[in-house]
Write a structure and sequence with these properties.
about 220 residues; mainly alpha; about 0% strand; globular
Length: about 220
Amino acid sequence: MRDPEKLKEEMDERNRKILDVAFELFVDKKIEAVSMGDIARAADVGRATLFRYYPSKLELVIAVCADQWKRYLDGLDERRPISSVHDIPAIDRLRFTMDSYIDMYQNHKALLKYNDNFNYYVTHEGKNNDQLVDFHSSLYSVDTRLHMMYEKARVDKTIRTDIPEAEFMRVTVHSMMTACAHYAEGFIWGSDDNKDYTDELIMIKEMILDYATKGIK
């Protein structure tokens, strides 16, 4: 009888390879164009094995996104623990968030590209909330930080809170991320391939910060 710990280790390694290979293919060819057969061949596993791990392509797509965000956010948490947010003025927390997305544009374009394609894909695939539980769990860190930032702003008045929290996040944080994703994809009118558009993203960041502090004295 095989050692259960050794078997689990092998299964985890196989899953790690499936997730990594799927991410690379989804970024390179877009989610819609990649089949489960493509992933099985690239990961060097049988189709039956792949489907034992992920019964559907949608489940794999969601698992890949959750995995990539968790790994990225775990790295951020190591550099700046959630507990430290209490000591940071809301405006500095917002500025740090904007800069984090610009850093993603510079150093993690693949994740931005995948996330943009992911949002489109899951919206049109008829997903249900139960399938997104792990994905939302992977975003716990960033969601918590942003909520703490908004609550901090109610006290320190460094960014506006006259707008409902969800709306504020859409027109600031989410808008910045969308801009960075579109620049990473090259979906910008008149843009050149392989040109660094960091300066333009900084301009967008400053416009968002102006909006976020409008009326603040």
